[in-house]
Protein 1
Amino acid sequence: FFCIQVFDFTVGCLTAIGFVSYMPNIRTFMEQTPTLPYRDELMKMDPQYLLLICMALFFLVMIVKAYFIGVVWGCYKYITSRNLMEVIYYPDTEALLPPTPPSYDPVTKMPPPPPYSADAEA
């Protein structure tokens, strides 16, 4: 679907370039298409102003197409990144618990600590 959108965008750009370079007079195009809506009103307009309106409309359509290409690309990146995260990380619950104190009997059988002295030797 993304490739089709990019192809459509490219063809649209080439069509606009061809339209501007091979048919700069838009009135000849309108005379050849009798089923054009609002044809009479458009024929009364200045040709350069009419060409400006047509090109502005074309650029608006191309901006919308480029936006939707970006939307599809963003969705594709989201889906592929989601497929890469197949391994779910579960933290070790025992490491999160506070340590338990040792039982009383083994501690009483340990030797006492060395005596502390108040004199500090350098």
Protein 2
Amino acid sequence: YQHFKMQDFSEIRKTSHDKETSYIHLNHYQGPSLVPSSSLVFRFPFGKQSDCEDIHNKLEELRKKSSAEIMKGSDHLDHDCIVFRKEINDNSEVMQHESCKDCGNFFKGKLQTGINCLTCNDLFHKECFASNKDDDYGTAEEKFDDPEDLLITPTDSREDFYLGEMDQKNANKKLKPKRRGTFIVRFSKDRFVISKKPHKNDPIRKEYDHLPVSTVTLTGEKWIYLEKGFAFKNIDDLIKHHRKSHKLYFPINSPDSELTERNSMTEEIQTIAPERRQTNNIPQINVEEPNNSKDEFMHGDISKEDAEERLTDKAEGTFLVRHNNGTYKLSMVLPNSRKFKHSMIHHTEGKFSLTNQKKFDSLRDLVDNYMNVSPKNKLFLGKPLADPNSEKIFKNRTDD
């Protein structure tokens, strides 16, 4: 494989040589001359123009990020730091994954990236390095219980979920009379397998799902894992770690797994925002459809200049949310001034956040939270500015 760095490309250009074919050129120049060996061209056939546009925007966003200034949090304001990158060798049996000094979690992926703080002599995730530990929003008093946690039935021992040697057909039979969210751990073909009846919160849209547990030898010891970067010595610890992420709510031998008249009424109810399904097509940028009648702060695909024009002469703290190029952005009137602030809203793994520390299931939850924090909090939001276009639509509907 040949590896490229986004910051090495001099330009990213989209062209169309005819009506049927589109191209994205990632060019590297030395002086006025193009260097073919350090350049790339992506070709998109007829019918893929929208994919070409999406990927072009995404590449531009990645290039901006690669050249962006490193954001320093409260613990590293005067520290020297550089970007950290490390490629993992697939053939090695030695644990080479580095972990973040702040949160303790591993850097994921074959190409690990983060921040190397030269002053601390430690490695950090970019989000952890940029976090502000002394802000009001990081205090324990502001944390809220997650409704999803109420679904997770505690386990006393492995016997609550482990059924020993069992094939897939018999696992399905065991799960059939149970409620959604019930799971089994079984042993089949020399490895553990997690079988579950997916809950409505689960992005899996199958009647049953079976997850094989992989084994890897690291420094002479055997470890098991569902996702690379998170390995465990035994199945108990693995299940404990993944219960929320994989919607393993009710162990098979727990009374809560029984489908009763009372809990059958909640079988079709989702308690968290649904994830978008994954496809095998060219990656698309997922954009949440705004609900104009509910999320009055959503202003759709408008530019920074349009946002400032709408916010002009509005009271301090007035804000709106917009999205363009697949990214959500918060625009607001700064306190004690006529200036404006524009912040990116992070959207990863179905969660929304402003700081990458506190995450929310929806934009509505994020906005409601920061409208109710102390006005002294730098993330405090005042009154939302309704989208004038959505107000017109709403009035037209009520006139009918």
Protein 3
Amino acid sequence: MDPKMTELMAKKIKGATLEYGKGLKVVANCGRWDNIGKVFYDPKKISRWILIDCSNLSKENFDYFSKKFVENARKMQLNIEEPIKMIFDKNSQSDLKKFIIEKIKTIENEKKGNVEFVMIINNKKDSQNYNILKEIGDIECGLITQCIDNSAIIKWNNKTKQNEFNRNIDLLCSNICLKVNCKLGGTNFKISTQDQNYCQYLKEFFESDTMIFGIDVNHPAPVKQQKENSSNKEEEKEYDSIAAVVGSVDKNFCIYPASILRQKKKGKRGLELVYHLNHPIYELLKEYKEKNNDKLPSKLIFFRDGISDGQFSKVSQHELNEIRKACSNIQQGYTPSISYIVVQKRHQTRFFPANFSDQAEPGKNENVPPGTIVDRVIVTPDKFDYFICSHLGIQGTSKPCHYYLLYDENNFDSNKLILLSFYLCHLYARSTTSVSYPAPTYYADLCAERGRKYNQKHTNQPITSTDYETDRYDNNIRNEVTIESALFKIHPNLKDKMFYI
């Protein structure tokens, strides 16, 4: 074994040019930018909203946070009215869910209008409040919700040895506004149409009927259920996974409604593939059609997270069949061109610049700069794959993402696919940085995590199928397994919103 690392030539792409409101453009130099002096590209409005303190803030700090949030929102042209402020005392009012729903009904009766947004300030130790708020907002009432930990508002000062109001409150409020505007259906920023790479390589995707999807599956630790008459304990495991699919419905690839699927399987290992994928894909295609004058996309591009090399063939073949099934279900004879790309983060490949001048931040760390591309020497000889380091490594060594194009009907060349993958990393709406992998896969990951918070009773009628899986120890043995899937019943008010962000 050669102890010397492999040396190779990498490519470097400059960051995307982003456009905010009023035509203001910013280049993502070194993978980061800021919101100072900028307004949202498409800001939304909040007429009626509630701010609830569940963390025993002082009245002075509660009022000051409310004031600073509204002030910063208006700076970014998020048109927001003053909140209806409330305090929840868990000592005298034990049921937060009942408290919120009763207050919403009272306000809607008095003000003769719907509450659009609920924000709570919470303690970390009361983490159940987060689950309660999300279930109320996402499923029962159809409200945009936001939860803030009070440790972000009140900070411990080691010099004075006491708690103080966060000195960076403007930055905190600005970051919260990124999430809130997006949840309301707005667009914070987009790829500029004057970007050089956009004009040369990506224009055809942004200006045609293209829909981009992100898919991810969230697995819990396996649960063992003891059967009275069973001797094989491995068979007692029940795997309850949450699959999330998001899909773009706008021309800028910034707005991604979601569909969440709970899938349950008994067997010897978890289910990585989304077995009944046709159902969430159908829901999202229907949403695209409603948003685009009854027109369906001609190109579908899928970024799939969480598949290992050994699962490529089985998962991609099954999910591609499910995608085609969804297409034929929504419209007879509908056959869009499909591309299926796997995004891997769990690998051991790392890049280090050979020259000091090539470092992302010379003298600070030894990471490669965002936009570093490797598509030769260390890639597979029989597949279309490439590495992109799209984020700025602040601490530790940057881990690049490994992309595999497993199926392609859109005739991607390497330049177009690499640029599209890299530019999508700039469109993660809740951050002013280029993130480590494309925004749709990031969103799918967040959405699957959100699905874990919901009560299982909030699902549609389950779909049950029987399949076979190969025995772990003997490939000649195939065991029958039952897979049960059910879509979560997200409130109709939020079907076209990024409520999960």
Protein 4
Amino acid sequence: FGSEWFWYYWRTRKLKPYVEFMEGNYPPGFTYPEFAPMFSAAFFDAAQWADLLTSSGAKYVVLTSKHHEGFTLWGSKYSWNWNAVDVGPRRDLVAELAQAVRSRTSLRFGLYHSLFEWYNPAFLEDAANVFRTNKFPTTKSLPELYEIVNKYRPEILWSDGDAGAPYTYWNSTGFLYWLYTQSPVRETVVTNDRWGSGTICRHGGFYTCADRYSPGHLLDHKWENCMTIDSKSWGYRREARLQDYLSIEELVKTLVETVACGGNLLMNIGPTHDGRIIPIFEERLRQMGQWLRVNGEAIYKTKPWRRQNDTVTPGVWYTSVPGKPVVYATFLSWPKQGLLILGAPHPTAGKTKVNLVGYSAPLDWETFGGQELVVMLPSVSADQLPCQWAWSVKLTNVC
């Protein structure tokens, strides 16, 4: 209900919807830890998840191993009786998904890990001391990080939740030195930028800068847009309405804009307490995979072009192929007259070729006013188009 920040909003913020929800559905004195036995993961099927992730066209997956409430999805030695092996599912969910992903797919396996925990006594003690003491990182967060790296060998380590404490409190540099020079994943691991106050969007293998970050322009550092299919939450919400979920058109638009500006897209879904991925999340993932099976050449292994979006027609985004004279223009709306007008690319008569990705016949083109490239799109019915939501034109030998 409400948010993955439920405990904090109910206990600390005392927000009215959360307080009323608890008063109307649970007895007086009910505590958040009493939810743990209800987390059953009874229908969690790691193989099914792995197959779905593959069908989505994803190239990597990041599992939330621990969020801010401190409950770990593995049997951590540093989270006694507050983990998925000791209570609730009584299963190592991290191990199950890691094994399924590695045995059934070519995806890279990653883990999200929250540095802080809202109500851990050691953290609260350090916070009361304005982080001049470091009891919590030395006894909890750092041992957990070493534990998940050594045990599950994630190739993406997605840190979060510095709670305003500096990287020196978390000893982030010490841990990252070990991660990149001595750990079992030192040759392959990548990390994000959330390792302490002031590090976000400044230090990291890739930047995240903010949740749902989409700058709309090229950055000089690799970055990631971490966003949610449910526009209001990172978790599963029983009260969510259909309009809360992004449409496949909105998701494709987000992907295309992100890649054109040099970013990766991390698209979040929230599973249920019994381990299911609900149908609307499954549908969106499969739709994204359907689109990528046609247009993947305009996304995978590409790099930003000299222009990120078109100078004349809105909703057109560019990518290019390293080492080849190929540029892709992905357009989000089909032109009413069947003419795609592009202001950024400059064609050369006798050399430039234009193809609609997924459509076999080459396309005719001409220039208008010596500047704009006018592409004649095929006159076909909707069911003859290679895809439904956005389309990519392959431009060969343009400048």
